[in-house]
Each structure stands twice: as structure tokens, then as C-alpha cells.
Specification:
Purple Acid Phosphatase, chain A, domain 2, single chain, 3 domains, 536 residues
Length: 536
């Protein structure tokens, strides 16, 4: 086996079953072998790589193989066949491949889809396994933090004598005492323990106040098995040490929340965007990728009384309008589109790709790649990878309502601050069931909403307000919208920021924002002026 591959195995602490060792040894390209191992570890969340791990992640395996150039692909396929390993995948994965993987050799990107389809009837114990898997994924990340590498123990190893300890645990309960101190119950795979944070220790108390149920964190404390006294808290956190730049002078654009079919869909404004992207602008000419981050349609039956607010009453009509727009995007631009809560798929996350039954026209667009919500897209240039994590952002509402600092700053006006909390916690929806929109399908093998690989860009939609931020060199983009202020938004005082398109240059990292608002249709704070019925 190649020395570089062996070094990767040692550095990452991987253990390979003989069949997997033989499989990797059969690859004639060391880089392909290293990529395969690294990605299989990330997708599976396992250090022990076995045939069973391969079978459980067969969708990733087939996707990986299909991305390889001709000669490498043939060699790797033969190795799988010789070892009797099947590359058959579930129905949903076959649909994904039919739509998007046909373009992988032509375009320079990799896609890491979320595993969205449970392969059996769900039971209560599946939720237990899901949270156990989440804990283990985040535990591995936290164990890499140098601050936690001394005195780190599991809860059942804490002695009866007072000592300094570090633990990695999940938050299961929080309460304020009559003295205004905070008592938190932490749990790991070996047991649980209570910890006290004193009110008069302002800095650590503020950190502890921000903790939410289901957060997995590292704790430094003193105490014994009866109670711990917390003096520091560490999140898994996200870091990029050097910003990725390409040599090619290409641009990437971001849109979301078109809400086609709504009576307040901004058709005139969106047509201005389409004219621009087909025009003579030097910025537009350099756009190679367009990320469409959910809620392409307004949907049907999403909320009570919605029908009265619709101009297009069926999903088929709404997606017909979406398709008519996307067909006008120049063919040299690859469009990645994930669903949101208004799209034709289940609400529970991770969300599958948009259903062909309601949107057959989308499946005919050659440069459109339908992806899950969330999805990691890796744009490639030689050895370089520019990673874009797409997530529509249903959890942003719960984060803004539940995290005190976000609530106090009224983070709907600066939603990039809510996305910072996702990056800090390394999870896209850390608080299960806090609001009706934060529901996800349990996965016993790994939690697909864990941010296992730190992206260069995390882009969202959902809140209808463009905001740009940076967190430890990760670029955050929360999408604008193409819908005027709705009656509900007006009622709750939410002011949208419509018709803006951020465009990022991958060579210079310069970000420009373009405003395509048509004054006859909507004003600068999203108030509806139009009368075109949202029909384009």
C-alpha cells in the first residue's frame, strides 16, 4: 500500500477490516484511495471501517466511484466486483444519481448528500441511537481541542475526592436556583452528573446561560462525583486557518426563497435578475455556479388560510413557474437547489430532494442539480476544494428565540449571528423539537446535521433577510427573498430584505451584492406594491 495512504490511516487513527484494506490496496491512484478513506470516515462517523460500514453508506460509495475519471473509475469498479462488494443503492439515491451525477465528469464538483431515507420503520430506540451517534461525532471533535486534553475523564470515572476534571457531555437539563445560580445536568455514555455555575462569576455564567438542551460541550470543572463546579465551557466550534482561493477567476451566486405561486411573489424583480445574468455584466459572465437555498415555491396547505394568498393554486403550477425561470439561466452555470419547508418534500430534516411527482419540469433542466437539505458541495480546482454547505435554515427561528444573546440583539435583523451559533455548536439544528419546524428523522449510524467538515461558506435562506458575516474565517451568507412582506410577517413585525443577490469571486474572495428590486413592485423594506399576480 502507498506510504501516503498508510500515513493517512495512522494520522486519522483508522482501523481497516482486511476486506477494506484489500479494497484500498487495489486502487492504483493513491490520492483516490486517501480521498475515499477520509470521506468514508466523515460520512460514516466511524474509525473502524468494515464491510458493514461500506454497505450502510453505499450511496456515498457509488457517488464517489461515479465521480472518478474514466481510467480510475474502471479500476475501482473492478476492485469492488473482485471483492464481491455491491454498488446497489436505495431508490432515492438512484434518483439523485440520475439527476445530478451524470454531470460530474463535465463539471468540477463533488456532492455529499445527506442520508435522508430511513431503511426501516422507526422506533423510540432509534432516537436514543441517533443522539448517541451525535454525541460520539461531536465528542471526537471536542477531543481534538488542546484545552480538554488534560484531566479528561468519563463521568463514571469521577472520584469521590475533590479534583480538577474535564468531561465531554450532553446537556439534558437546566434550572435556576433560588440563589440565582445555574444547575446543569450533563450526561455522557457512562452516566450523568450535576454541575453548578455561580451567578457571581459573570463570564462563565453568561456562557452557561447560552447552553441549550442537547448541546454537546466540553467542561472544565472541579468537584467530585456528587457535584461539579464549572469554571470553563468549550463548544466543538468551527475553524478555518486559511481562506481557500482558486486560481480561476470565477464567481458563485446565491439566491433563495422565491416563493413562486405566492400572491406576493416578486416576478418583475426576478425577471430583472434573469436579464442581468444573461447580459453583458462582467460579474455575471464569470458566474459558474448558482446556489438556490430552498423555498422555491410557496407550497399548498403550508399554513391555515394559505389558499387565499396564492395566485398559483397547485404545486405543479408553482414548479412550472420555477422551471420557466431556471431554464433561462445560462447553460454554462450549474445550479444546485435544495428544498425548504415550503417545497414538495417532507418537513422533517434532512429533507430529500424535491419530489418528481410535483416538479417533473425540474428534472428536464440539464444544468440543474437537485440536492438534499442540507448538502455539502465541493467545488474543485486541481487539488483545491472550495466547500459550500447548503442549509435552508429552519432552525434559525428556534435559535433566535431560545439563545438569549440572539433574542436580545433581535437577530432577525442580523441572521448571520444565528448561523454563527450553528458553527460554534457544529450542528445545523442543535435543539430537537423546540419548534414545529425543528424535527428530524433519527439516524442510528450518524447525525447528518452535524457539521462534520467545516465549510468555506455556509449559506442559508428562511429568514428573507440578506446578511453576510464571518466566523473563524467561515463566510456566512443568509439569503434574501423574492416575496414582498406577507400578512404574517407584517403581524409579527418582520421586515424582509428582498431581491438581493450576493456574488462571490473565488479568486479574490471579493463579495458583491446586487439589488434587483423593481420599485413598481416592492419598496426597500419589502412592502408590496405590485399587481402582476406573481405569474411572471
Amino acid at each position: 500500500m502507498d506510504k501516503g495512504v498508510l500515513n493517512t490511516i495512522r494520522e486519522k487513527g483508522l482501523l481497516l477490516e482486511k476486506e477494506i484494506y484489500d479494497l484500498i490496496s487495489g486502487f492504483n491512484n493513491a490520492r483516490v484511495a486517501r480521498d475515499f478513506l477520509e470521506q468514508l470516515e466523515k460520512v460514516s462517523g466511524q474509525k473502524l471501517l468494515t464491510r458493514s460500514v461500506l454497505n450502510k453508506n453505499v450511496g456515498y460509495v457509488k457517488q464517489f466511484v461515479n465521480q472518478l475519471p474514466g481510467e480510475d473509475k474502471s479500476v475501482v469498479e473492478k476492485v469492488f466486483v473482485n471483492l464481491g462488494l455491491s454498488l446497489e443503492v436505495r431508490r432515492e439515491k438512484e434518483v439523485i444519481e440520475e439527476i445530478s451525477l451524470k454531470n460530474l465528469e463535465k463539471h468540477h464538483y463533488k456532492i455529499i448528500y445527506s442520508d435522508t431515507a430511513p431503511d426501516k420503520k422507526l422506533e423510540v430506540r432509534d432516537f436514543t441511537k441517533h443522539f448517541r451517534a451525535r454525541y460520539q461525532q461531536l465528542q471526537r471533535i471536542l477531543m481534538q481541542r488542546p484545552e480538554l486534553q488534560r484531566n479528561l475523564v468519563s463521568i463514571n470515572k469521577i472520584s469521590s475526592d475533590r479534583t480538577n476534571v474535564g468531561i465531554i457531555a450532553i446537556v439534558t437539563e437546566k434550572r435556576i436556583t433560588k440563589n440565582k445560580n445555574l444547575i446543569i445536568t450533563f450526561e455522557d455514555l457512562t452516566g450523568e452528573i450535576k454541575a453548578l455555575v455561580k451567578f457571581d462569576r459573570e463570564e462563565i455564567f453568561q456562557k452557561a446561560e447560552e447552553l441549550q438542551l442537547d448541546d454537546v460541550v466540553g467542561i472544565k470543572a472541579s468537584g467530585n462525583r456528587d457535584i461539579l463546579f464549572v469554571y470553563d465551557i468549550f463548544y466543538p466550534d468551527s475553524f478555518i486557518y486559511e481562506k481557500m482561493r482558486f486560481e480561476s477567476d470565477i464567481n458563485v451566486a446565491f439566491i433563495s426563497d422565491t416563493h413562486c405561486g405566492s400572491g406576493r411573489h416578486l416576478a418583475k424583480s426576478f425577471n430583472r435578475f434573469l436579464e442581468w445574468i444573461n447580459g453583458d455584466s462582467e460579474v455575471a459572465k464569470k458566474i459558474k455556479y448558482l446556489f438556490f437555498v430552498g423555498d422555491s415555491v410557496d407550497g399548498v396547505g403550508i399554513f391555515p388560510g394559505q389558499e387565499a394568498e396564492l395566485n398559483l393554486k397547485t404545486m405543479e403550477e408553482q414548479y412550472g413557474l420555477v422551471a420557466s425561470y431556471l431554464k433561462r439561466i445560462p447553460k454554462h452555470i450549474t445550479i444546485f437547489m435544495c428544498p425548504g419547508q415550503h417545497d414538495a418534500t417532507r418537513v422533517a430534516e434532512p429533507q430529500p430532494i424535491i419530489n418528481k411527482k410535483y416538479a417533473p419540469q425540474l428534472y428536464e433542466i440539464e444544468n440543474l442539480v437537485l440536492v438534499t437539505n442540507p448538502t455539502m458541495v465541493k467545488l474543485l480546482e486541481g487539488e483545491k476544494e472550495f466547500k459550500v454547505l447548503m442549509y435552508h435554515g429552519a432552525s434559525m427561528n428556534a435559535l433566535i428565540n431560545e439563545v438569549k444573546s440572539l433574542r436580545m440583539m433581535k437577530a432577525y435583523r442580523c441572521p448571520a449571528k444565528a448561523v454563527e451559533q450553528m458553527l460554534k455548536r457544529r450542528h445545523l439544528a442543535p435543539m430537537y423539537g423546540v419548534s414545529p419546524s425543528i424535527v428530524y428523522v433519527p439516524n442510528a449510524e450518524h447525525d447528518p446535521l452535524v457539521i462534520s467538515e467545516v465549510p468555506d461558506v455556509l449559506c442559508t435562506g428562511e429568514v428573507h433577510h440578506l446578511d453576510v458575516g464571518s466566523y473563524n474565517r467561515v463566510l456566512i451568507i443568509t439569503g434574501s427573498c423574492w416575496q414582498a412582506q406577507t400578512p404574517f410577517e407584517e403581524k409579527v413585525g418582520h421586515v424582509p430584505d428582498p431581491c438581493k443577490v450576493p456574488v462571490l469571486n473565488l479568486k479574490t474572495r471579493e463579495l458583491k451584492v446586487f439589488d434587483f428590486r423593481d420599485d413598481t413592485e416592492v419598496d426597500e423594506i419589502g412592502t408590496w406594491r405590485g399587481n402582476n399576480g406573481g405569474r411572471g
